[in-house]
Design brief:
Length: about 240
């Protein structure tokens, strides 16, 4: 009898895990968890990120995002060097230790407008997740998967991108009870568009910080997929 009852409970538990929701529904529930008031599209915020990596000194980045005014800036300090990149309605600006740079002097410092755009896309993408998965050019798989990763159960969404956006394949791992995003992972692809299993990285998200009503990951730890090699950690800090 005990064995029979256990089987019933186990089957019920498996059936309820994720409630057989579509990928689109899971994404909707996760967005409702992270951004319940729909603040992301009009976000105007500043926050500070500290990056620690093996065998390197800490880098502190002060980030400002104003999506309505199409403004982004990042002021990064490591040791005695402070750089500022900004993008204001598509126009970039750069400075090095308080001195504004033109394109020629910027090149001497290994700085460029392309890098300014790269930083803008990087920070707005990662801190705008999972809301950014609604952006044009993002292709969400129809069905979710149920996976166990690092000993925890997750609902997993697979995402690819239009060629103009990117060639990597991403997987997003959501808590099946709260729909909080707790892990993301990406793989590079070969010339045929197939995943390269020993490529890419996974990122573990722990703790949360609330920025303009949005629950953002407080700590992001990066690792290689191929050998679990540790790359570094980004931490949202109060400044």
């Amino acid at each position: 009898m005990k064995s029979f009852l256990f089987s019933i409970v186990l089957c019920a538990s498996l059936a309820s895990f994720g409630q057989n929701l579509t990928a689109a529904k899971i994404l909707e529930k996760s967005i409702n968890y992270h951004d319940p008031n729909g603040n992301w599209n009009t976000i105007k915020a500043g926050f500070t990120v500290e990056m620690t990596t093996p065998n390197a000194s800490k880098r502190t980045s002060q980030i400002r995002i104003d999506l309505v005014k199409e403004f982004f800036s990042v002021k990064a300090t490591r040791d005695t060097v402070t750089t500022i990149y900004s993008v204001n309605k598509g126009i970039c600006g750069m400075s090095y230790n308080g001195k504004d740079l033109d394109s020629i002097t910027a090149k001497e410092k290994n700085m460029s407008c392309d890098r300014a755009t790269l930083y803008k896309n990087y920070y707005t993408y990662l801190y705008g997740l999972p809301m950014k998965l609604k952006d044009p050019g993002t292709n969400l798989s129809e069905n979710a998967e149920k996976k166990t990763f690092k000993g925890k159960d997750y609902l997993v969404l697979k995402v690819t991108y239009d060629e103009a956006v990117g060639s990597d394949v991403w997987y997003f791992y959501f808590n099946p009870k709260t729909y909080a995003m707790e892990v993301y992972q990406f793989f590079k692809t070969d010339e045929n568009g197939n995943e390269k299993p020993d490529s890419g990285e996974y990122i573990l998200l722990t703790d949360e910080a609330v920025v303009n009503g949005i629950k953002m990951p407080k700590v992001r730890a990066w690792y290689y997929n191929k050998d679990d090699g540790y790359l570094g950690t980004d931490t949202l800090v109060d400044k």
